[in-house]
Amino acid sequence: MAGKEEIERVLRSYAQAWLASDLEKVLAAYHDDIELHYMGTSPLAGTHRGRDAAFAALGQASVRTSRKLVDVKDVLVGDSLGALLAIEDLGDPSRRVQRVLLYRVQDEKPRECWLFGEDQRFIDQLWSKEA
């Protein structure tokens, strides 16, 4: 299990790549066995296991929401998990939404992520649109 220092280092590096819109670094950051847990009731809700499934879900979420990262307000680190507090503009026209991305780190990479949105009903509406 990753310790606090490793979790903080991995998440700060990931956040920097995301803020820089460096898609290559963002995708390379994920563990081969990444699991994404999307909340809500949309077609994208549920668990996406492995890089192929996770990247497909990430791609669909990005296309359906026209998402743009505005800021990572903070990186929080606990004994076994870490979190990013992110602000994103979603939709067209865009609406600003705060989100919490909770991570479990393994082997110096994000291994598991749970995504929580400030307004899940709004996100579900966006994620339910066909891309």
Task: Tell me what the structure shows.
With 131 residues, the chain is an alpha+beta fold. The chain has one domain (4-127): Nuclear Transport Factor 2, Chain: A, CATH 3.10.450.50. It has 4 helices and 6 strands, in the order H-H-E-E-H-E-E-E-E-H. The chain has helices at 4-19, 23-29, 50-65, 120-127; strands at 35-38, 46-49, 68-77, 82-90, 95-106, 109-117. A 6-stranded mixed sheet has the order 2-1-6-5-4-3, with helices on one face. It is globular, with a radius of gyration of 14 Å. The mean pLDDT is 96.
Q: Would you kindly provide a brief summary of this structure?
A:
The chain is of the alpha+beta class and 131 residues long. Helices cover 36% and strands 37% of the residues.
SSE topology sketch:
Blueprint lengths: L3 H16 L3 H7 L5 E4 L7 E4 H16 L2 E10 L4 E9 L4 E12 L2 E9 L2 H8 L4
Parallel strand pairs: 1-6
Antiparallel strand pairs: 1-2, 3-4, 4-5, 5-6
CATH architecture name: Roll
Rg result: 14 Å
Oligomer: single chain
Q: For the record, give the distance between the C-alpha atoms at the N and C termini, rounded to a whole number.
A: 37 Å
Would you give the CATH topology? Nuclear Transport Factor 2, Chain: A
Strand content: 35-45%
Main sheet strand line-up: 2-1-6-5-4-3
Features:
131 residues, alpha+beta, Nuclear Transport Factor 2, Chain: A, six-stranded mixed β-sheet, 4 helices, 36% helix, 37% strand, globular
